[in-house]
Amino acid sequence: MSLHQLVYLSQSTRKLEKEELSAIWTQAKANNARIDVTGSLFYNGGWFMQVLEGPAPVLASLYDKISKDPRHHDLRLLYNEPAAFRTFVRWTMNMTNLEERQADKYEELVDIVEAAKTGRKIYGMSPAVTLLNFFKA
Ligand SMILES: Cc1cc2nc3c(=O)[nH]c(=O)nc-3n(C[C@H](O)[C@H](O)[C@H](O)COP(=O)(O)O)c2cc1C
């Protein structure tokens, strides 16, 4: 089945505690492993940016389910395209909390989320594409 990558931005309904983030992460990892989805979730205290990768129909129904989750709202689909390879091949869901400044690649990731919020391009590329390129081996 054809592999797709999807990237969206959303606003968390309120500021989430670490435990609440962990709960989302645990749930996502368990579900995604079952449905052959990989990806990465970034949280900056107010906004989520998530990459999902997997078979196109699976992603469509997962995105539909995630979009109804009351823990966030104002979802903006930034990218939804076929892909030759997975970028987060080792992760059923990676999680980066950008509230912790020691996060790997902190400055770049904060800038990507900020650019996505306003629709600003980074070196002529959409923030979603910049994000995907950033993690390509
Ligand atoms: C920002 C955010 C990202 C999420 N990412 C995923 C995900 O990657 N996979 C997933 O199954 N659920 C994810 N969820 C949780 C789903 O919205 C939903 O609560 C969960 O899949 C329901 O699990 P269940 O069908 O086992 O009850 C996410 C929720 C939020 C708020």
From TrEMBL:
Stored Pfam families: BLUF
Top-rank taxon = Bacteria
| GO MF term set | blue light photoreceptor activity; FAD binding
Domain BLUF residues, every copy: 3-94
Task: Tell me the protein's name.
Answer: BLUF domain-containing protein
Q: Which organism is it from?
A: Pseudoduganella lutea
Source taxonomy: Bacteria, Pseudomonadati, Pseudomonadota, Betaproteobacteria, Burkholderiales
